[in-house]
Amino acid sequence: MAICRLSFGRYKSKKESIMRKLLSNKYFLLGSKIIIGLIFVISGIIKISNPFEFVESVNNFKMLPPELVNLFVIIIPWVEFSAGLLLVFNIYPKESATIISGLLVIFTIAVVVALLKSLTFNCGCLGNIFPQEIGALKILENLVLLGLSINILFNSSGNSFEK
Amino acid sequence: MFYVRILIIIFVAALMGIIYNSVSHSSIPFFPGESNNYASELKHKSENLPDSVKWEYNPEVIKWYPIRADQAYFVFEKGMAKFVDPRDEWDFEEIHIKNAINIPVYKFSEDMLKLKKLNKEDLIVVYCEDEYCDNGIALCDSLIDLLYRNVFLYKGGIDEWQFAGYPLEGTKVKKNQ
Q1: Where are the domains of chain A?
Q2: Do A117 and A97 touch, CB atoms closer than 8 A?
Q3: Chain A CB contacts of B30 below 8 Å
Q4: What is the model's pLDDT at position A74?
Q5: d(C-alpha B102, C-alpha A102), whole Å
Q6: Measured between CA atoms, how close is B65 to chain A, in angstroms?
Q7: What is the C-alpha to C-alpha distance for residues A85 and A93, in angstroms, rounded to an integer?
Q8: Half-sphere exposure of B60 (CA within 13 A, CB side)
Q9: Pairwise CA distance, residues A76 & A93, whole Å
Q10: Biggest alpha carbon distance in chain B?
């Protein structure tokens, strides 16, 4: 029994160390940064180029007071764009990953609240060019991106200027 | 230092957003102003009107909409819309709808719109001489190209407006009176 427990413990710790190695692997981190960065850069550009469309999307969620919607629409796409660009070029990756994680948390909460209110519409996450209905798939997608950006936050080393 | 950098990134991004919005063709007001309320009021009123006077209007679709004399007068009376006259200055001086703005089609430019203080969210009613005048359609198309959202064309124009006895201004009007 004791041997069985010991071998299971070893198996578990071996699996954990493989997982840890994968998550901190520099190529995996680089890939994550480029993918998340590009998604946020593209999303930012689409929203910046058509603010009216983004206003409609934000209004659909019915979460922000109408007085703050326009300000949100003017500022948030630029925060997405800047954080994404910094991440792609590995400049202050921890800081960019923190901002992106924060945005993903906000977006995920918004989608969950909208679903709880039984609302269905195009989330406007990537404008009307790539329409995406809010739903479980959107939440899953956000959680995967959130996981990857949190991994960058904990496992990334400094920025490209410091190397 | 970590948190300071985060704040700096957010601050710089926000600043870029504000600057871009001020110079962009498709800028939006920082806070939804009265014109936005007018747009939603118009939509709401339209939904509650009988079929005979219902507006063909959907603020989510950017295109210009035709508007009849009674509808034009409705928004005129409520002070909800800016009336824009695309005819040349001489015709405009002679006779135009009260408080209308003159933007001759041949002079049309974005600077001209800024000068006349036409905002993207304003309700704009374009009218011309009569239903055969194409300048109204040309001006509506140009406004839509620049993403003006609430553009209406009053086809009956100045002739129908005058016939209906609605308020007018101009040198010719004064002479007649």
Answers
A1: 28-155
A2: no
A3: 70-71, 74
A4: 92
A5: 49
A6: 18
A7: 10
A8: 7
A9: 19
A10: 76
Q: Do A70 and B28 touch (CB under 8 A)?
A: yes
Please give the Cα distance from A81 to A71 (Å, whole number): 16
Give me the residue spans of the domains in chain B.
1-28, 31-176
Provide residues of B within 8 Å CB-CB of chain A.
2, 5-6, 9-10, 12-14, 16-18, 20-21, 26-32, 60, 62, 147, 149
pLDDT digits (tens, 9 = 90+) for B27-67: 777 876 544 444 555 555 555 555 545 566 666 666 788 88
Task: Return the residue of A nearest to B24 by Cα.
Answer: A49
CA nearest neighbour of B17 among B8, B27, B25, B7:
B27
The one-letter code for the residue type at B174 is: K
* Architecture in CATH of B31-176: 3-Layer(aba) Sandwich (3.40)
Vertex A50: Cα angle to A58 and A115 (nearest 5): 25
For residue B18, the chain A residues in CB contact (below 8 A) are 74-75
Other beta carbons less than 10 A from residue B104's beta carbon: 17
Task: Give Cα separations from B9 to A23, A80, B14 (angstroms).
Answer: 26, 11, 9
Rounded distance, CA A108 to CA A142, Å? 6
Instruction: Please give the sequence-ordered ranges of beta strands (E in DSSP) within chain B, or none if there are none.
Output: 65-67, 81-85, 96-97, 101-102, 123-127, 150-154, 168-169
Angle between the N-to-C axes of helices A26-49 and A136-155, in degrees from 0 to 180, rounded to the nearest 10 = 130
Does B9 contact A82 at a Cβ distance shorter than 8 Å?
A: yes
- Scan for tokens 């710790």, then name that residue: A13
Q: What is the pLDDT of residues B124-159, one digit of tens each?
A: 999 998 888 888 888 888 888 887 878 889 988 998
Mutate to test the interface with B, among A45, A55, A71, A106 (most CBs of B within 10 A): A71
